[in-house]
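Quick check before the chapter quiz. The format below is the same one you will see on the exam, so make sure you can read both the input and the output lines.
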Amino acid sequence: MHNVALELAVQDPAGARIASDVGARRVELCSALGATGGITPSAALIEAAIDAAAVVPETAGAPILEVHVLIRPRPGGFTWSAEERALMVRETVLSVDAGADGVVVGALTPDGRVDEETVRALVAAAGDAEVTFHRALDVVPDQLAALDALADLGVTRVLTSGGAARAGEGAERLAGLVERSADLGVEIMAGGGVRLDDVPALAAAGVDAIHLSARRVVTEDGGPGGGAGSYEVTDADVAHAVATAVRELQLR
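Here is the expected output.
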């Protein structure tokens, strides 16, 4: 079995520490994941997560956990106004300057193709940092053509469910993307509703990485001023179970 990296979507420094503890390769740092699908975190949160990730790994010689920041100014679709594009470029620069190892972006034209002009600007703004194109890819009609375009633009990897509602249901399409990516040098990372029992099929499809949020909801009453509500945290047990499953597959 080839090496498969694990990436966790986290929303706070505690999530980054859990990712490091279970041996994840990267985190995607975002805010409001459950409510919006994820938006750009604050500058202070980026700095705090990078500080939390900068720990000595438990396994000698293992790389320090990487922090990749989601660059998404609002929920909804992935066609951006000129003002939003300028904001995304600025957020990319600030994230990399803060010490982020990479950024996670997505931009489409109104007719559903990769917005090459915007992605090119974001790749340039990222400099030497890695750029991941997120699940905007899953609403593109022709994923293979999009993969070709993203490779030409210098994108490091794509995050995709293979166009399915969940990555576990898109293994066949993911395998096709993996086959195409072999000639392009773009990594394929499976993500989208990933469950523990999806890991074997996703690894068998040949993906370079598996991405999941491993989150649970905490319900808490904020009183008259805060209102009843909930927030999300990274579930250490789920993260550990998936990390263990990935490692066991690689030992076979």
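If your answer matched, good. The radius of gyration is 17 Å.
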